[in-house]
Amino acid sequence: MVSLTNNILPGNVYYFNNPYLIQTHEPHYHVVISILNGSIILFGVLTTQFENRKFIFKENNYDPSTLVRIKKTKYNSLTYSESFVDCNYPCRWGFIDFTQLLSNRQVNINGIISEDEFEQLKIGIDKSDLIEGETKEIIRRTTFQVI
What we know:
The chain is an alpha+beta fold. The chain has helices at residues 50-60, 95-103, 115-127, 133-141, and strands at 12-16, 28-36, 40-47, 67-71, 82-86, 91-94, 107-112. The chain has a single domain, classed as SH3 type barrels, CATH 2.30.30. It is built from four helices and seven strands.
């Protein structure tokens, strides 16, 4: 039997209610960007609010490459044809906390993004002025994995 926790890999897409998202209580799609030091999962949170993000990016003079488009495919089961990840604000979850959500079936596993999209997320994180250097170094070494 394969453990779900052994399959938390960069590029995987999950759908769950994230209490750390301040402006909504609705579940969102999340993509695993990396696992930091084996204990923290770094997620990109997907949004369909492109115009809102575009406005925020313009107001804050963010690098446009830090907003990454993720397309719906047969491999990821997203609801909308395209969503976006703001690489300036990834979400961190404790590995143990997230595996408990998985065990309690509070998370839906929704497939995987493309390798190209994953590489764009890595570039977005690297270009962000809001992400610290140590995290950027870990992300640079993270590889896309498919089971």
